Protein: Carbohydrate kinase
Organism: Rhinopithecimicrobium faecis
Amino acid sequence: MLTKNPLPVIAIFDVGKTNKKLFLFDEQYRIVFERSARFLETLDEDGDVCENLESLRLSIFDSLHEIFRMPQFEVKAINFSSYGASLVYLDSYGRPLTPLYNYLKEYPEVMMKDLHLQYGGGERFSQQTASPILGSLNAGLQIYRLQQEKKDLYKDIAHILHLPQYLSFLLSGTYYSELTSIGCHTALWDFEKKEYHAWVKDHGIVEKLAPICSSDAVFSSTFPGSPYVVGTGLHDSSAALIPYLLNFQEPFILISTGTWSISFNPFNHDVLTLDELNQDCLFYLSYQGKPVKASRLFAGYEHDLQTKRIAEYFHCSAAKFRNLGLNQSIVNTLKIKISQKSAGLKTFAARDLSQFENEEEAYHQFIMDLTDAQFLSTQLLINGQPIHRIFVDGGFSKNSLYMNLLADKFPEQEVYAASMAQATALGTALAIHQHWNQQPLPNNLIELKFFASWR
C-alpha cells in the first residue's frame, strides 16, 4: 500500500490581544488547518490585568506537539505575529523576570514628561519618534519606567525582546529585535536618523535590546534534528500589509481591523505634522524597513463595549449583530431623528439608548457613528493624494453594515472588503516564503468584494 506524502506546510501563530490563533498554510497559501483559543488574563504586581505569558508559552508548545503528531503534514517553517507595545524582560537564562505588562497600563505622567523634556519636549520627541504621546503604548517608555522604578530588577535583565521575537526565541533560542516591532509607536526609533533615538542610547537601554535582524530572517530550531526553520516574528498590523504590498503597485490604503482599526498608506511619506500626531497618526516600519504612514482608531475594542451595552439594554444576544445588514430606511430615519454629534470614537457611548426603538436601530446608529470616526481617521492619510482604492481586512470586513456605510463615506474611492480575512497570518507566512516554499508566489491571494455608495 502506497503511503501518501505529507503536505509541506508553514505554521503561523497569530497572537492577538483577544484571540490566539494557529494556522497551517500549504505551499499555495491555503489554510489547511486552524485553531483558536482564548486565555484567562492574570494580574501584574500592581493588580492590573495582563497577558498570562506562561499560558501562552505552554499553549505554543502544546499546539506544536499536536501538529507534529499529524502524519498528513510536514512542518517546514514556523513564524509568529503578535500585537505590539509588549515587551518581555529576560534574565541571562532566558527566563522572564516580570509579567507581560498591559499596554493600557496607566503611565506616570511626571516620568513621561521628564523624559520628553530631556529631548526637546513632547512635541519634538513625538515628531522624531513618529509616535503620538501614548504612555504605556509607547513601549520604550515601559522600559524607561522599569529602569527608574525597579533598579535592582533592571540590573538582572540580560535581554529585552518584543513579544513576537520572544515567541520566536522560544523555538530558536536566539535573541533578536526586528524592525516592524521596533517601528510600531514604541518611541524607540528615530525616523529622521533611521536608528535608535538618542534617549535609548543615553540611558543605556540599547545595551539590553537584542541585535536587529531583517524581517525575513530565519533561524534553526533549538530542538536537535528539527527539520523546520523559525522566523523572527512580526508585528501583526505590519504583517497584514504584506500581501497587499506584494499584490498592488498603485497607491492604496489598507484599513486593518481588529481590536484596533489601523489605516495604512505605504505611499505617503510626508513628515508627520503636530496636528496629525495629535489625531493619533504615526509611522510604522514595513517588513522592508520603509516608513508607512498610519492612523489608529480603537474601533474593535469600542465595538465590543457598545454591542454588549446595546444587547444588555434590549435583552438580546450580541451575536445578533454579526449578520445584520444595511437597512436604508433605518439610516434615513436616524439621520432625521438623532442629532449627529461630533464624529469621535466615543460619540455613541454618550448616547441615551432609550431614544432608539429597538436593538437594530441602536446598532445602526452605532455603526454610523463608528464609520464617521473611521472616515476622519483614514482621511488624514489621503490629504489630497491620488488614492483610488481602500481595502478593509479583518473583523469589520465581514460586517456588511459597516462596509456599506464606510463605502458611502468615500464616494471618490473604490472600497473593497478583503475575503482574505487572515491577512496577518498570511503576511507572516509570506515574509519568509523564500526559506521554505519552492513554489512561485500565487497571484490570487486576495479576493475582493466591492462596496459601492448606496445612495
The chain has a mean pLDDT of 93. The chain has 15 helices and 22 strands. The first strand starts at residue 7 and ends at 15.
